[in-house]
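Consortium newsletter contribution from the modelling node. Members have asked for a concrete example of what our holo predictions look like. Here is one, prepared for the flavin-adenine dinucleotide complex that several groups have been discussing at recent meetings.
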Amino acid sequence: MPDVTESDLIVLGAGPGGYAAAFLAADKGMKVTLIDAAEKPGGTCLHVGCIPSKALLHAAKLITDARDGEQWGIHFTKPKVDLAALRAQGNKIVDTLAKNLLELCKRRKVELVKARAVFADSQTLELDSGSRRRFKHCIIAIGSSPTIPAALKLDSLRAMDSTGALRLEEIPATLLVVGGGYIGLELGYVYAALGSKVTVVEMTDGLLPGVDRDLVRPLQNRLEPLFQKIHLSTKVAKLAEAGKGIRVNLEGAEVTEKEATFDRVLIAVGRRPNSGGLGLEKTKVQLDEKGFIKVNEQRRTADERIFAIGDIAGEPMLAHKATHEGKVAVEAIAGEPAAFDARAIPAVVFTDPEIAWCGLTETEARRDKHEVKVARFPWLASGRAATLARTEGLTKLVLDAESDRVLGVGIVGAGAGELIGEAVLAVEMSASARDLSLIIHPHPTLTETLGEAAEAIYGTATHLLRVRK
Ligand code: FAD
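And here is the predicted structure:
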């Protein structure tokens, strides 16, 4: 018989959902074991997602900001990129954060186990080390992985998913990005800034499917000169190794060249939950048709001792949603009143400009025939945007038509990801446009665009002309 160790709580997966859950549970006095197959805690987000991509995006922005210096009469010479040093800087950031997590595990007396685990039954996990772990409760937080459709599977070092692209092995002369979602655009922006000729292919008729079109437009306008080409309503039909490149067949009404060769291809067409091969059939846990684990508002599965959080438990697959769910699950296990009832889960596309939104989008409001008013403040009228020479932005509020309650906010522009924080608070606290208009925002800052967007509803926005009735 293999060894069996008991824990109050086993958290499976040490990403932003899992480690946040483990830490809160330990703070509440539970005996916690955190199991992850990876060498270090942090999950996708820390090792091959949010953090390394944002570090590279920062480096890319240094390059494009330096280029923008020309309009201020400041001329830099062409940047020389030392790839090894750039990689080392990114790795240093990730390693420091991973070390901090290890220290936090130690100080909180969370037992960290490096192992791949599968369920043996509703109360037991089997580790690849041969041992067994029993639990009173388990939180599954094992995340998601990149999806590669069968037609795009190619056994070649030149065909990369996001993890491969983040390795930054070289700066290819030409790069094809398959998928115009946030991961494709963020990484495409990085490679374009570093010097690759980047082509993006998106199957639907617009970049960032699902995001309001007026928020996407300013980004697309800025990406068009940076990228070699953006093909919309276009499908990649076939990939094949061709000498020192990859030959790509494109299908789309507006594609003139149906065949092209690229040095590297990045496939960023989506992610799928890691629910396969976990032995869930030995428990009562149920999956939906996409492979996400079905959970209730406490993040409890159909098996009452087992909870699921983060990417494995459904969209949106974002780190902050995983963390919040982890805390809700632990509170529920501790017997506290808890529910995942967020009105506004913010989302940020970290390109330049950034796009950020939370709550109800205008697209959703129109689709669901929700009675809304939309207030817009174009950054052309913002003093702060003028000082940054970044007037392409837009701040808009989606308001309940009757009460003026803020149901959603969308922002495109420099630093939109930081600005969305105030908007999340407004949606969660049921603030009205009147409330936002009565807040004194510091001048000159881009936060004023939230106040002036609200004032636009009442015809009191200082920098917008009132429409005479
Ligand atoms: P994960 O972070 O995926 O962690 C799961 C862990 O489970 C992993 O460490 C894995 O090793 C472990 N595991 C899996 N199976 C087993 C098993 N059987 N046994 C033991 N361990 C196992 N989100 C944002 O919010 N902001 C961003 O800017 C952002 N940028 C991103 C950029 C990229 C390129 C990518 C790929 C993702 C990005 N994301 C971003 C998404 C974010 O990374 C995920 O939403 C987040 O990591 C999900 O957290 P999680 O805790 O659910 O799982």
